[in-house]
Fold this protein.
Amino acid sequence: MVLGLMVITAIPTVTGISLGVREQKKQNAEMANESRMVKFNLEVYCEAPEINGTMIVLRNDKVYVHPKNPTTNQPLPSPTTGRAPHPFTGFYIQYPDEERSPTRGLVSTISNDPPMLNWIYCDKDTHELKYGNRTQSREHIIGEWDWTKDEVGLTLEGWEGFVAVEEEPGQWALYYDRNNDNLRGLARPRGKRKLQCSLERKILPEEMQNKDK
């Protein structure tokens, strides 16, 4: 009888612990989602000084490396147009596609007025990084996007395989080296200068976090 009582009285305790662990996991998941929805810019790190310390911008449906103002940390005006391109300003969020397993996507604002968000994706044929709506991005590589263990570096499919390609003199487009061969298997960037680089998240100030979400 004593043993029976011990077993019976232990059940609520074990159940309570189980519920507590489950709730804690739920809270941890929610906190992780909130952390991944923190908005950030992207800065370029490269051994080549000409693009080291530059930033990622969006223009003409593609992702580019662009010089920035060291004081404001914003893109410098383009020498050809006199206007500054739109800086990558994004966060992680699940990609909405019921036909795929849950995939963490990456979005960015593409304009401030009107405020608009687009998906960042890798073109499955050219491996260029581009941005577009769900219809434009769906057939391409849309994730999984994440960060490095220190939550600083940007990763795609688990690693920092990014390459800047000088498509025109002084114009560096961003590619994803999916096959880890420095893009040798692709025809389009052949003959162009290529620089391996990594991208680091620069968290935006608190007052800018809730804009455009």
User: Anything to note?
Assistant: The two ends are 61 Å apart (CA to CA). The chain is about 20% helix and 35% strand. The first strand starts at residue 40 and ends at 45.
